């Protein structure tokens, strides 16, 4: 049958409409990385980093006005004439700006001295100064400070590649975008945890390798900040027979003065309104016995903060603090009091009924041991996301069970939804289930997906409407012309309208909910909701695909065999597609639920991981860094591993 002029014009229109759809798909697969786009992304990244660091300050009770006045002292400066010799830690960004380009800085201090707090003030201070620059060209010359923990670098991987992967995990930056921004000097890495990279078997080799990479040609003239414990950094410098980080200024976080612990505890007591006399006993002891083990121990901000929390929740522990004769005993006593203090402040509800001291200690030790294993295998050993918790149940076991469950459920859905003869039905179900099961089981590290209903950076539904209209035109005209050749003009128009409407609806909704890089940074990610977001994403996309294909198949069947058959076939096919797609796409949530079943069987970890992690964060045992949970301090993580 010949093609009419109208049909030829329609074909040309469909081809033209397919161009914006193809462009959108290409931009989703490969986001823009031109200078203007990178500038916009840098601004969004700065806002996301500022929000994340503000959250860390709240977790550490270190927000402006609440943190004890810790100071830093300039230990080494490449320009001796610089005016700052010592200042409070919230002024560290001012000192950093005094450094000559490329600005390179080492921040040192003892365990618990406040290095991470200093890093948060540095990042937020630099972002605040960057935001004050109205000129876009001027602002692009100021890199966005991003704090990254180095514990996941194995000492052998190419440094830029590792930074790209961390930016992808922590801030959802596409690899191409992150790589371009690093190459253009638009990101200032603040590398925390240099002293946490090695264990007894590597003897500082990974940390020294990182310093060597930063001193080599590719990185020697780039700005960077490194945080490390003082003793460990001195050892690393001696191992390399240099100053550690070439061309860098060095500041040291000072211990608290003799008067500050008592002043801080008095201020803390006033803020919480406690009338318990134990506070007077402790503060009096600190003032009278300034050289006692307790007074010396509390000159570390980390230990002082633990003491304040412990006295608030379990004031009866004061006697143990006053009677302890050694600093090591005080440290162990304070760390050991954290779980009882956390439980003492927890409401006695059914949700927390099994949160006993023994159970919580076992769960936290399990988490600490797993993080140590991750570090030993070259992964991030200080923080873990909710969509990685399944690994605690045993990675191989969880992957195997997840794959088997996906295979059985997908196969069952396909068999029940198929209307072919028995042999073909079984073959269809077996092959489909096997493909889905293997795909799921072979996914080593599933990452939670997300759909976004609201985005503060733009109005998204106009783009969804445009994509929907383009999709409707392409699919409707293509289907209409195809059916025109076999079913006549009326059939072609009917099918074209049906296919166009349904396909356009699906394309519009999916495009409207798709997020750009700027959108993802503006929305941020809630570490507590990763699994829930992934489940919602799987259910939503399964429903969209099931509805679309079910209606398309149903309409086609109705035209061929009547409305009743079309309805039955459409419902069956749509449900089959929705369930199969949902099982295959929600891999992070599926893996998590398999792990939950294993946790119920072994009791090595709570059966509701998200609730437990959020409870531990709320009680000061853990904190959130970007989207990952980590122990409040590395000292506590190691103590849980070592304690018998």
From TrEMBL:
InterPro entries assigned to the protein according to its UniProt record, in alphabetical order: P-loop_NTPase
Annotated membrane-spanning segments are 400-417, 464-483, 489-513, 538-561, 567-584
Output the superkingdom of the source species.
Answer: Bacteria
Position of the signal peptide: none
Keywords, sorted A to Z:
Membrane, Transmembrane, Transmembrane helix
Return the protein name: NACHT domain-containing protein
Q: Which organism is the protein's source?
A: Nocardia asteroides NBRC 15531
């Amino acid at each position: 049958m010949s093609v009419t002029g109208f049909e030829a014009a329609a074909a040309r229109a469909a081809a033209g409409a397919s161009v914006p759809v193809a462009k959108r798909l290409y931009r989703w697969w490969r986001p823009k990385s031109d200078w203007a786009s990178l500038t916009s992304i840098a601004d969004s990244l700065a806002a996301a980093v500022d929000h994340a660091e503000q959250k860390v300050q709240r977790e550490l009770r270190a927000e402006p006005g609440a943190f004890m006045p810790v100071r830093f002292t300039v230990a080494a400066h490449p320009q001796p004439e610089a005016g700052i010799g010592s200042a409070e830690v919230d002024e560290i960004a001012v000192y950093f700006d005094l450094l000559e380009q490329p600005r390179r800085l080492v921040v040192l201090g003892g365990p618990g001295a406040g290095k991470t707090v200093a890093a948060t003030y540095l990042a937020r201070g630099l972002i605040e100064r960057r935001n004050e620059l109205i000129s876009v060209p001027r602002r692009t010359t100021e890199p966005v400070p991003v704090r990254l923990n180095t514990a996941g670098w194995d000492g052998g991987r190419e440094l830029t590649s590792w930074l790209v992967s961390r930016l992808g995990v922590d801030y959802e930056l596409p690899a191409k975008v992150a790589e371009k921004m690093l190459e253009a000097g638009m990101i200032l890495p603040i590398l925390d945890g240099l002293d946490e990279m090695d264990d007894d078997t590597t003897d500082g080799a990974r940390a020294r390798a990182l310093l060597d990479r930063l001193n080599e040609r590719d990185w020697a003239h780039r700005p960077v900040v490194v945080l490390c414990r003082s003793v460990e950094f001195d050892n690393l410098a001696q191992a390399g027979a240099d100053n550690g980080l070439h061309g860098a200024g060095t500041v040291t976080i000072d211990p608290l003065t003799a008067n500050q612990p008592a002043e801080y505890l008095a201020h803390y007591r006033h803020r919480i309104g406690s009338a318990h006399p134990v506070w007077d006993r402790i503060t009096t002891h600190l003032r009278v016995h300034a050289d006692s083990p307790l007074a010396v121990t509390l000159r570390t901000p980390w230990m002082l903060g633990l003491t304040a929390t412990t006295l608030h929740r379990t004031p009866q522990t004061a006697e143990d603090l006053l009677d302890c004769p050694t600093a090591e005993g005080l440290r162990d006593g304070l760390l050991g009091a954290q779980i009882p203090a956390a439980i003492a402040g927890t409401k006695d509800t059914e949700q927390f009924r099994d949160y006993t001291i023994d159970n919580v200690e076992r769960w936290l030790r399990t988490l600490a041991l797993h993080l140590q294993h991750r570090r030993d295998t070259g992964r991030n050993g200080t923080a873990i996301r909710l969509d990685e918790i399944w690994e605690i149940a045993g990675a191989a076991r969880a992957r195997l069970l997840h794959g088997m469950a996906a295979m059985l459920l997908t196969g069952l859905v396909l068999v029940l939804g198929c209307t072919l003869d028995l042999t073909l039905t079984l073959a269809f179900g077996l092959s489909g289930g096997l493909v889905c099961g293997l795909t799921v089981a072979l996914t080593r590290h599933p990452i939670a997906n997300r759909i976004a209903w609201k985005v503060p950076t733009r109005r998204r539904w106009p783009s969804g409407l445009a994509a929907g209209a383009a999709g409707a035109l392409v699919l409707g005209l293509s289907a209409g012309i195809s059916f025109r050749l076999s079913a006549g003009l009326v059939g072609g128009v009917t099918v074209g309208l049906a296919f166009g409407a349904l396909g356009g609806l699906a394309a519009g909704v999916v495009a409207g909910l798709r997020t750009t890089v700027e959108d993802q940074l503006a929305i941020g990610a809630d570490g507590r909701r990763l699994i829930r977001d992934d489940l919602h994403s799987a259910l939503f996309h399964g429903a969209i695909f099931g509805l679309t294909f079910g209606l398309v198949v149903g309409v086609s069947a109705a035209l061929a065999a009547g409305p009743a058959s079309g309805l039955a076939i459409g419902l069956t096919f749509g449900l089959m597609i929705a369930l199969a797609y949902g099982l295959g796409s929600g891999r992070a949530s599926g893996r998590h639920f398999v792990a939950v079943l294993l946790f119920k069987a072994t009791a090595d970890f709570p059966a509701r991981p998200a609730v437990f992690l959020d409870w531990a964060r709320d009680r000061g045992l853990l904190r959130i860094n970007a989207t990952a949970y980590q122990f409040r301090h590395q000292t506590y993580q190691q103590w849980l591993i070592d304690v018998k």
